[in-house]
């Protein structure tokens, strides 16, 4: 059975360590051959917008743009539909490769056999 990991990150610049942990775990899982789906919700939604990850700083942490690039190379990043709407972010505003989807898709992914889910 394939290893699958769904990660929901709710933190952004408001909680930098928690935010960085989510992206780091996702990138390490992808590099380890795990099928990863990273969900951007709440304040992390802004990282779906080009250039926003470059503004994020946390000492001794991998640069967020590099982590996003590695996750997109072999995994999936999804921006929450409602979170995007609250921030007036549209499909035209986001990084290529990021999709917008809602809770139904999250639940479907998280409930797939063999999937582990984490929330940060």
UniProtKB/TrEMBL annotation:
* Source organism superkingdom: Bacteria
Q: What InterPro entries does the record tag this protein with?
A: DsrEFH-like, Sulphur_relay_DsrE/F-like
Q: What is this protein called?
A: Sulfur reduction protein DsrE
Species of the source: Streptomyces termitum
């Amino acid at each position: 059975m394939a290893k699958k990991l769904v990660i929901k990150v709710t933190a952004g610049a408001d909680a930098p360590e928690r935010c960085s942990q989510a992206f780091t775990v996702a990138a390490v899982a992808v590099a380890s051959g795990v099928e990863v789906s990273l969900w951007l919700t709440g304040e992390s939604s802004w990282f779906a917008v080009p250039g926003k990850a470059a503004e994020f700083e946390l000492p001794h942490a991998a640069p967020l743009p590099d982590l996003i690039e590695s996750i997109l190379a072999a995994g999936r990043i999804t921006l929450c539909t409602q979170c995007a709407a609250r921030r007036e972010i549209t499909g035209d505003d986001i990084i290529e490769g990021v999709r917008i989807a809602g809770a139904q898709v999250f639940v479907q992914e998280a409930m797939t056999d063999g999937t582990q889910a984490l929330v940060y």
